[in-house]
Amino acid sequence: MSPEIFFAVAFSALFQASWNFVTKSSKADKIALLSVGWFALGILLLPVALYFDPISTWTARAGWFMLASGLVHGVYLCTLGWAYKLGEISVVYPIARGLGVAGTTLITVGLQVHLVSLQGGLGILAVVLGTMVMAMREVPDLNARKAFSMAVLVGLIVSAYSVIDSFGSRETSVLVYLALMNLTAPIFAAPYLFWRLKPEMMAVCKKHKFEASFVAMAGSVSYGIVLWAYQRSPAAYVATTREVSVVFATLLGIFILKERADWRKSAGIVMIVLGLVLIKLA
Questions:
Q1: Whole-model pTM over 0.90
Q2: Tens digit of pLDDT for each residue in 105-149?
Q3: At the N or C end, where does the chain have fewer CB atoms within 10 A?
């Protein structure tokens, strides 16, 4: 993995952790906050994307990837929002991201899309184990089982969209892909949003516009860098390097939200940093 890609993806993790932190700490409904922010940004981005990359240049293959990504991200909006309603960011986030890395690696290597070196594989393993160690105290806690289960589901969804986007981002421009993803994800989630969360969405539009805007902008900057990296590096390495955001999110949760700090979280952070060093050297 080249230095510029490694450091760009690591930098994107700051934005990744920040929008997750704002989502968790907001008093707004989490699902409504994400959906309103994403949709509004998609509307703003689409004309700009079309100016630089008109529809006439799109291929059917790119269209299918963008639709698939929008569908999976629509499910992601709802499940991530529910997970943050139920559990701490320093628990939910590591589980979801760790499983996401594991799934992405297994799928891409299993399909022989990309192969990883032994050193890179050890780095990926260290990151996955580190993220899981940080959250394992929740397993025996009956009161936290729902949050743990939802975080596992989010991790599976992260694996799915990471693989889809590692292919789809090569078919069109990053700006087009981002615009369509932001637009279609809330559209696919619309039946649930209007059935269960219509008052909450109105509340976001009235009282939480800044938070929704920040979440959408920071998320798009972060993921835009990741899509750019997918075009130039194996998906397994890119997805794993993003997990430095787990360290940032956990520290924010502990020091700002006053969530629990224990040896598991400290050990997990050390393992993640070690894994990232191995990936960089690979």
A1: no
A2: 777 766 655 666 777 778 778 877 877 776 666 555 655 677 778
A3: C
Asked if residue 269 lies in contact with residue 247, where contact means CB atoms within 8 angstroms, the answer is yes
- Positive or negative, the Cα torsion across 123, 124, 125, 129? positive
Residue 279 has what DSSP assignment? H
Query: Which of 245-256 are b and which e, b meaning 16 or more Cβ less than 10 Å from the residue's Cβ?
Result: bbbbbbbbbbee
Phi, psi of 259 (to 5 degrees): -80, 165
- Spatial distance between the Cα atoms of 149 and 250, rounded to a whole number of angstroms: 19
Q: CA-to-CA distance for 261 and 264, rounded, in angstroms?
A: 8
**What is the length of the chain?**
282
Nearest-5° angle of CA 214, CA 152, CA 274? 75
Nearest to 229 by CA among 9, 3, 7, 73: 9
* Tens digits of residue pLDDT in 17-55: 899 889 989 999 999 999 999 999 999 999 999 998 888
242 secondary structure, DSSP code: T
DSSP 170: T
Which phi-psi region, left, alpha or beta, contains residue 204 (left: φ > 0; alpha: ψ -120 to 50)?
A: alpha
* 91, 125, 210 from 267: Cα distances, Å: 14, 14, 35
* Rounded Cα gap, residues 176 and 192, in angstroms: 26
